[in-house]
Amino acid sequence: MNDSKSGIIEAGGAFMGIQDIHKREIDEEDGTHVHGMQSEATRRGQLAVVLTQVVSYALMIGLVGGLGALTQAGAIASVTLSALAVLAVVIAWPFANGVTQTVFARALAVIVYVVAVAFNISDGFPVSDKAFTRWSWFLILAFLTIVVVSFGHQMWRKDRSHLIVSMSTGLIVSACALGSSCWLFLPSLMHDLLSAPDDGAWVAALVLVALIALGVLLVIASGSWWNEIDGPSPYSWLGMGVMPVMLLGYVVYVAAFVAHLTLR
Asked: Which ranges does the record mark as transmembrane (predicted)?
């Protein structure tokens, strides 16, 4: 009997060992953590996400600054680059949802961006005091509308499985698209920072430091977000990479508003 029990225990241990080996192989293939270490695929994805953000910031600041902060060319550059960010998320979708939810979330994000840009440019150029105030109210109403529409879509579905995940994905992408439209205030921000009077230099420096600090925090956070993705597509690093840039647009707007009020 003892020999039989020992044989069963040994067979069970061997089976568990085979399962562990198989699990390690799966882990290595799908890019998840192996023995507490990140796989090569995960590290490459994180690097691509970070580089995407750095390149995006360089393009936005370089083009707007090079073409002129308060020129039509600079304004067109900010619109074009922010639109490309939305397009990147739509094409390089970083989330794994069902087809129906994915189509709705992408369409809602595009609609939100188009409406936001149309509302923004209706105030004319350069940005006025009234434009900043109107945009604040627009952001509040836009957020409320996004929540109501997203919730209504989920209630309309016959199959409400994964309700929270589906709704949160739609909200996140639409919020990012709205944040991307806030980059249209970058020309005004750059102009006010570059032309700040001597007594307002400390305000300009404080605004600049806050922007850089928040940008760095988003870069760090994006690495964690990337690790949470299940089965990323070949180009999902691009979509994940531009999302923190789009979210920083809200900070750009707030910074532009502060600079507009204090540095004139």
From this structure: 47-69, 75-96, 103-122, 134-151, 163-186, 201-226, 238-263
